[in-house]
Amino acid sequence: MAAARLRFIGMNDVTATLTLQLLDGAEPVTGTFCYHPSDPWAVTATFTSPTAGSVTWTFARDLLVHGRYEPIGDGDVHVWPCLSAEAAAVVVIELDPTEHGVLLEAPARELHAFVERSLACVPLGRESEHLDIDAALDRLLADSPAA
């Protein structure tokens, strides 16, 4: 059976690399945030520490869109605006809010620029316009064995 492929309306990916502060006082972490219009509801972030390696998380873009202004998130990712210890505007990103969770401070201005660039590519509420679901379903049905 051939793999189904979604056709995506062409746009450029958006990527930003930010220096994030771990709230436990450990060394800063590099966060590379990627938005791909081919997956219009999601953001992928890779967090890299020189000593601990890398981990990649994929979560709803809405968390970053709304978390810049108010607390949001259920489950494994929570986001909210805050002030750093130095009174700088930051956005806190909490990953896996359990006893092993991680709290990261992202510089608000740089995260805002990333989010705004993603919204310029695919505005909120228009994500479904960037997927050709009908064509993908047609291919899936054409590849399915007859019942």
Structure, explained:
The protein is an alpha+beta fold. The chain has one domain: Sporulation-specific cell division protein SsgB (Transcriptional Co-activator pc4, Chain A, Roll), CATH 2.30.31. It has 3 helices and 7 strands. Strands 4-3-2-1-7-6-5 form a 7-stranded antiparallel β-sheet. A hairpin with a 6-residue loop joins strand 1 and strand 2. It is elongated, with a radius of gyration of 18 Å. The N terminus is likely disordered.
Helix and strand arrangement:
Blueprint: E1 14-22, E2 29-35, E3 42-49, E4 53-60, H1 61-67, E5 77-83, E6 89-95, E7 102-107, H2 108-121, H3 133-143
Q: If classified by CATH, what would the architecture be?
A: Roll
What is the general shape? elongated
In total, how many domains does the architecture comprise?
Answer: 1
As for the CATH topology, it is Transcriptional Co-activator pc4, Chain A
Main beta sheet strand tally, sense and closure: 7 strands, antiparallel
Low-confidence stretches: 1-10
Write the element-wise H/E pattern from the N-terminal end onward: EEEEHEEEHH
Strand arrangement, largest sheet?
Answer: 4-3-2-1-7-6-5
Give me the CATH superfamily. Answer: Sporulation-specific cell division protein SsgB
Strand-residue fraction? 35-45%
| Number of DSSP helical runs | 3
Number of strands: 7
Which structural class do the helices and strands define? Answer: alpha+beta
